[in-house]
User: Fold this.
Amino acid sequence: MEEAERVNYITEGIIKSAIAVHKALGPGLLESAYETCLAFELAQQGFKVAAQKALPVLYRDVRLDCAYRIDLLVDEAVIVEIKAIDRLAPIHEAQLLSYLKLSGYKVGLLIHFNVKVLRDGVRRLVNTPIGFWDL
Assistant:
């Protein structure tokens, strides 16, 4: 499977799993509850999931732990940033873009669970050689 196809397969699986979690739980819970349930659902679907993965900053060729954590890293390919807040702000997208830049991963999903229909809370961001794209 080509890398782009693989990433599309993973993101599709993440979104389907997030929809299943949202349908079961609805909006209004803590981010940690959605994160735990989504990690469980993804593992049940056969995905490799790392939760709260440390993300160091490389500064002057030294790796520094600055307490950044990726909510979920799925199949060592897609970063998932989970939110369960009143509303998303530009800083939340900037956070995911920073994680993509720091980690070198190309694709990230920002999933906001505090919405009536989860489709309205999903953003897919791609880190490309010419900049970031919202797809």
Residues 3-134 form one domain.
